[in-house]
Amino acid sequence: MDIVHLLPDSVANQIAAGEVIQRPASVIKELMENALDAGATQVDVFVTDAGRTAIRVIDNGKGMSETDARLAFERHATSKIARAEDLFTLRTMGFRGEALPSIAAVAQVTLQTRQPDSDLGTRLEIEGSRFVSQEPCSCSVGADFEVRNLFFNIPARRKFLKSNQTELSNIMQEFQRIALVNPSTGFTVTTNGTLSVNLPPSSQKGRIAAVFGRKLGDSLFDVTVESSMARVHGYVGRPESARKKGAQQYFFVNGRFMRHPYFHKAVMEAFDRMVPQGEQVPYFLFFEVDPATIDVNISPTKTEIKFENESSLWQILLAGVREALGRTGATATFDFESAGQPELPVFSRQSFGEGFTSVSSSPSSPLSASRPVRASSVDDWQELYAGLTQSHVQDFSPSQQEIPFEDIPAADERPFSADHFQYRGQYILFSSSDGLMIVDQHRAHIRILYDRLTEQMSRSAVPSQGLLFPEMLQFTPHQQPLFEALLPTLSGLGFDVTSLGGGSYSVGGLPTGLGGVDLQKLMDEMLEGEESADPEKERTERTVLALASRMAIPVGQVLSGEEMDSLLAELFASSNPNYTPDGHPVMALLDEQSIVQMFR
Questions:
Q1: How far, in whole angstroms, is CA 343 from its chain's centroid?
Q2: For 397-443, what is each residue's pLDDT tens digit?
Q3: Which of 198, 238, 333, 507 has its CA 20 to 30 Å from the CA of residue 306?
């Protein structure tokens, strides 16, 4: 019996849709790109319930005839190419003829479209690949696509959509990419009836500033390099704009967004020893190349691009960024992370040896809940701890096994003031019944502050301090939904935030102890955590941890004996003295037997 058969078109379209249409953002991307291919100078996007209920994209492009409107929803129907050779001369965003049939396979679609030389347009309805109706209508020139109930016929796919905040954030990310590379086109986004983004036509740099804020725009310098292979132009951030997370980095080729780790290395190579290790600079770089020298037909998303002369372009890009960077006069290496922060005492060489601070070396007030502590100026303090896990003498190592609570003596039984020391402003060392205990002071304070903030939130009693001059925050369209979702948690932590519209917010109050922190940077890092995790899961824990990390004692701050006493006492009274809330060890033990072995 024959068992091989052709799949129905509706099933084949649903399978194709699994690659092309992964979420509401995919619909936005495909419809916006079609609008630009049609020559639109204005594209308006309307989103309801983050695209679950409805997505509408209206453009003023050249529109479609009655026949074209119907044929456009057939698989592999396209106006962009006619033969295989056309793939090597592509100047349009779309070319496969998969987007519209894929969308129609998993949603209810209504299209109204009219060409400039026609008095009447066409209205067409399709539901789950099934043609419903087509009739003449009165409508504006261009195309008006309405996509309702996405994945209505694939419940499993709809079930795996993320929260509205996450889906809306993804929509805005796709919107940003398209808006950035088409500055001469006007764009708007309306979410649930409210105008969220309005981008009128502008210059390239003006569009970047409109999307990401004037502060970022002012930190960029021009890059332009031309060769027989390509023209590369755009903007790169100055060294002082570098950051560990959330740097805006965009590559485009022939008007198409692309991901290219290899070219990214070329940009960062140009900044060698000019920015702190692990930090990234923003960039917006546009490649113009012969379409015959690239292949965009690699993945359904078309963001992976293959270049014929990749190595040569790498050198061109590196030279161009270096040359432009040299014109800015930025040649030195700076610790931008600590720029503008208060002066801190550093460790000194005392009689206890290099890097040690005795209990009497810097007397000051005890470390307590009432004393505000400046946020850490070192984010990668985990790396500083790594060197402690290996002894440099005969391979003896401190033990990192969990130290039982019952083995920790009570506060009044600990001779802290007699025999504990601070090493290099990072670690507190003291003797215990089992050997030499080593505590990471920054991690210890994170554990203490995390427990304190969590307990205060449970009582709605997080202390807040008002600001004489409110601080301003600016978020991109991509970040706005994530920040809005974070606002209730921030309010519970003592932040007083007011929306000013257009992605701008005013901060009039902060949690006590958070003074001196770069709020924009802190919030950007928090939003990075929101983006990489499920925003609906453990949001409070993530936010409290980020806040505690910023408020904790900086690495390198010298503590008095009383402050070390207070810190250790609070640590041992915390919920888990052995680990930070995200699982990093707080203390290690160099047992007595290992110490004895060192001197045999």
A1: 30
A2: 555 555 554 444 444 444 343 567 888 889 999 888 788 889 999 99
A3: 238
